[in-house]
Write a structure and sequence with these properties.
This is YwbE family protein. The structure is a single chain. By secondary structure, the chain is mostly beta strands. The chain has a single domain, classed as Roll (SH3 type barrels). The chain is about 0% helix and about 40% strand. It contains no helices and four strands. The chain has a four-stranded antiparallel β-barrel with strand order 1-2-3-4.
Length: about 70
């Protein structure tokens, strides 16, 4: 599954990210996007974001908000 592009992510969205410390295991952390940190439109490992709780990681998926 392809990682989301920058244009698909916005502050306030619920996403699942992989933290730097979890890159080997691939463990995902869920949270709300506070800020987008990657400037380029795409990144092969995911767009880097800061969550509202201060954690930083790369977006692997957007959580459906029904």
């Amino acid at each position: 599954m392809a990682v989301p592009a920058r244009k698909e992510i916005a502050p306030g969205m619920r996403v699942r990210i992989v933290l730097k410390k979890d890159q080997r295991s691939g463990t995902l952390t869920e949270g709300i996007v506070s800020r987008l940190l990657t400037k380029s439109p795409t990144h092969p490992h995911g767009i880097k974001v800061r969550l509202e709780d201060g954690q930083v990681g790369r977006v692997k998926m957007i959580v459906d908000q029904d």
